[in-house]
Amino acid sequence: MTAGKKKIVRIDALLGEMFENRNWRQNLARNRVFDFWAEAVGKDIAAHARPRLVRGKVLWLDVTDSIWMQQLHFQKEDLRRVINERIPGEDGIDDIRFNLVANLPLSPPAKKIDREPGPPPRLPPDSGKLAEFEKLLATIGDEGARNSFRTLWLVGQGRK
Predict the structure, then answer these.
(1) Distance (Å, rounded) from C-alpha 59 to C-alpha 104?
(2) Which residues contact 83 (CB under 8 A, 6 or more apart)?
(3) What does the alpha-carbon distance between residue 50 and residue 104 come to, in Å, rounded to a whole number?
(4) Residue 69 falls within a domain, yes or no?
């Protein structure tokens, strides 16, 4: 091992070089399809197909049924063109392949809320504890402070 000066490399240059060497920039560009899919293909297609993964320059789509798979196969070149219009440079998709997935959950299930959640019901304070606390409050000379402490105590007691 030779004893020499080590060159300091800026992190942005190192990351830029790594992005180029591993084709990450192109892969990131192609994976933008996940962000614009529904907008690009329309709600009808998006309701029956969604991007699953991009491997190299091939986009894999999950499709709800064989009828839609056949229809999308006929529209493959149009889909590819629409997608590639949104991907910069020559980083686009070369092919689209389809994967039939029964019961494909295209969007997360909506949470059903029957009513708006509100504060928990307040329980009345224990009368014995309230009387004991009122005795402690009587030792405080300032009426505003007594009322504030009483309110805080009641709120704390009502959430048991």
Answers:
(1) 17
(2) 33, 40, 59, 92, 93
(3) 9
(4) yes
